[in-house]
Automatic annotation (TrEMBL):
CDD domains: LuxR_C_like (cd06170), REC_NarL-like (cd17535). Residues 6-122 form the Response regulatory domain. The modification 4-aspartylphosphate is found at D57. It comes from the Bacteria. Residues 141-206 form the HTH luxR-type domain. This is Response regulator transcription factor. GO terms for biological process: phosphorelay signal transduction system; regulation of DNA-templated transcription. One of its GO terms (molecular function) is DNA binding. The lineage of its organism: Bacteria, Bacillati, Actinomycetota, Actinomycetes, Propionibacteriales. InterPro entries: CheY-like_superfamily, NreC/VraR/RcsB-like_REC, Sig_transdc_resp-reg_C-effctor, Sig_transdc_resp-reg_receiver, Tscrpt_reg_LuxR_C, WalR-like. Pfam families: GerE, Response_reg. It comes from Nocardioides caeni. Keywords: DNA-binding, Phosphoprotein.
């Protein structure tokens, strides 16, 4: 029988360290070899016990789990690094991935997700896994595809005020043809066929706060 996967737990809440440690130790192929309550203690513990997998909280008193991930990833590309957090938004997911984490798990996820992530990290430490990654990628792609340039946003605001292409061009010192090109790109980015659809979409995704009654 092969040796169990050695795990280091880093979390500034003793209850979580003890509870999660007990859950992991119930698995025959996992064994918690050390725990730590801060970034500094966690890095020191890693250097002392050299575990195969490190599971770290994101927010701690003396730094973040990303500090742990970056530091340990520089030391080894073979250690599995799991970020465990209450704050599982898209920004945190991408930050963990870019820092070099092997996985990202929300604290509201079932313990089985942490166990699966630890096993994955031990085998494929450089392959990032996260249950919410696909959704986060789709939201980022959608945001990027609808991002307007500063000039396009200026045109959109004037469209919302009810101005036509010629009037917008005069206000922004653009030719009418250039203004129409900007309007066409705005419609394309917002998936709109006309001004009304563009303004509705822009309001929905937060590009506009108000639309003048004269807009049509």
């Amino acid at each position: 029988m092969s040796e169990p996967i050695s795990v280091l737990l880093i979390d500034d809440h003793e209850l979580i360290r003890n509870g999660l440690g007990a859950v992991l130790d119930l698995e025959p192929d996992l064994h918690v070899v050390a725990t730590a309550g801060s970034v500094a203690e966690g890095i020191a513990a890693y250097q002392r016990v050299q575990p195969q997998v490190v599971i770290t909280d994101l927010q701690m008193q003396d730094g973040t789990g990303l500090d742990v991930v970056r530091t340990l990833r520089k030391e080894s590309d073979q250690v599995g690094l799991i970020v465990l957090t209450m704050h599982s938004g898209d920004e945190q997911i991408f930050a963990a991935m870019q820092a070099g984490a092997s996985g990202f798990v929300g604290k509201d996820a079932p313990s089985t997700e942490v166990i699966k992530a630890a096993r994955h990290a031990a085998v494929s430490p450089k392959a990032f896994v996260c249950a919410g990654l696909v959704g986060a990628m789709m939201r980022r792609q959608s945001a990027e595809s609808t991002a307007l340039t500063e000039r396009e946003h200026d045109v959109l605001v004037l469209l919302a005020e009810g101005l036509n292409a010629a009037a917008i061009g005069q206000k922004l010192y653009l030719s009418e043809s250039t203004t129409k090109s900007h309007i066409a790109r705005i419609y394309q980015k917002l998936g709109a066929a006309n001004r009304a659809q563009a303004l509705v979409t822009a309001m929905r995704i937060g590009l506009l706060s108000t639309v003048q009654p004269s807009a049509r």
